[in-house]
Amino acid sequence: MRIVADENIPLLGAFFAKQAEITTHPGREICRAHLMQADALLVRSVTRVDPALLAGTPVRFVGTCTIGTDHLDLPGLQAAGIAVSSAPGCNARGVVEYVLSCLLTFSERTGKAWRSQRVGIIGVGQVGSRLANTLTALGVDCLLCDPPRAERGESGFVSLDELLAQADVISCHVPLEHQGPHATKHLLNAERLARLAQGTWLINSSRGPVIDNQALAALLLQRPDLQVALDVWEHEPQVDLALAAQCALATPHVAGYSLDGKLRGTEQIYQAFCAHFQLPATLALSELAPTAGLATIVVNEQTPTDWSLDRALRWVYDVRDDDARFRAAMAGLPVDQIAKVFDQLRKHYPLRRECSHLQLAWQGAGDLPAHWLAAGFSG
Ligand SMILES: NC(=O)c1ccc[n+]([C@@H]2O[C@H](COP(=O)([O-])OP(=O)(O)OC[C@H]3O[C@@H](n4cnc5c(N)ncnc54)[C@H](O)[C@@H]3O)[C@@H](O)[C@H]2O)c1
Ligand SMILES: O=C(O)[C@H](O)[C@H](O)COP(=O)(O)O
């Protein structure tokens, strides 16, 4: 068995070396010539995989160790008889922690309490539902918009128009779909962006093209009241540095870049690979992953509730560090260097662990709901 894989997939050897010979390449450089003897191709999100890439190769299984699948031509691969697996939810917890950190940062910068803001969540799947559960458990009012789920008869959703009219914060968690009844390319276009209420906090950690970046850049010239956090960009790895400069927070597509999230992605694809090739899946991530360096955070009852909670959330993940690294690396770069530096920032991302690997012990009698720990910081 032969596997060709993106060199940025962690624990490849630990999971697959017993079953296959593995060859790795930078994800953006994987080409047909690399695949002429491969049975399986394992990628992350930067390799475009379509029938043309695999034509004439023995590849029969494609696994992406990511949540997003917009880099895969799913109908084309299915028609070509290629099995495809992704890693649903693998890094969702990391994205939730990124959004919480954005809320904290905007709160500090505007003086508005983040827990009093009404948060509109567009796309309520693996990430959006975890975010909604966490925020609701913390007493934050949420508006949920997910037309595909609403059409399946599920309740509790508002329309996009209602969300735009009523939310103080908007956070996008939809897949990138270029066409169809629920297409999300430029879901937030110039017309919808113009409807954002005074002082809205807008966060995009889904895919860059979900927001019309050019329209957003034009709007921000007129609307300094808006606080925008972009983790994803319309022409990645190229970034519009003028737009980045107008954003309150700018990061290089790392919202879900916890070590835990990446390792879970590899494990999920290992399981799918074994199932596809009818091999025994004898390895589990719990045996291979490093243990967390920090096991317990105690939020002290002597300190004011919000301060303690905010402090604990900052310990878990501080988006300001990633924003600072991004701005420092991008400062004054010639246009033809931006994409390379963007990829380097991602390849050499610092170690980050999720809070699901920590225990947050709440000892206070403050206003934190009793179910907070379970609802907010698990899974
Ligand atoms: N920045 C990052 O590091 C990062 C990490 C993980 C995922 N992502 C992106 O976030 C996306 C969402 O992740 P997920 O795990 O929640 O995916 P998911 O598939 O579990 O959920 C997506 C939800 O969006 C809904 N949806 C689809 N079209 C919609 C529309 N037009 N309007 C509103 N809702 C719509 C779906 O019904 C679904 O419930 C992924 O597709 C990926 O592109 C980014
Ligand atoms: O879709 C996902 O899971 C995320 O966007 C993920 O963080 C992408 O990571 P990459 O493939 O770019 O390493």
From TrEMBL:
Residues 290-363 form the Erythronate-4-phosphate dehydrogenase dimerisation domain. Residues 9-277 form the D-isomer specific 2-hydroxyacid dehydrogenase catalytic domain. This is Erythronate-4-phosphate dehydrogenase. Catalyzes the oxidation of erythronate-4-phosphate to 3-hydroxy-2-oxo-4-phosphonooxybutanoate. It is found in: Cytoplasm. The keyword Nucleotide-binding does not apply. It comes from Pseudomonas neustonica. Belongs to the D-isomer specific 2-hydroxyacid dehydrogenase family. PdxB subfamily. Its EC number is 1.1.1.290. It holds the Pfam family DUF3410. Its main location: cytoplasm. It comes from the Bacteria. Substrate binds at S45, T66, Y257. The active site is at R207, E236, H253. Coiled coil: none annotated. Homodimer. Residues 109-255 form the D-isomer specific 2-hydroxyacid dehydrogenase NAD-binding domain. Keywords: Cytoplasm, NAD, Oxidoreductase, Pyridoxine biosynthesis. InterPro entries: D-isomer_2_OHA_DH_cat_dom (IPR006139), D-isomer_DH_CS (IPR029753), D-isomer_DH_NAD-bd (IPR006140), Erythronate-4-P_DHase (IPR020921), Erythronate-4-P_DHase_dimer (IPR024531), NAD(P)-bd_dom_sf (IPR036291), PdxB_dimer_sf (IPR038251). Pathway: Cofactor biosynthesis; pyridoxine 5'-phosphate biosynthesis; pyridoxine 5'-phosphate from D-erythrose 4-phosphate: step 2/5.
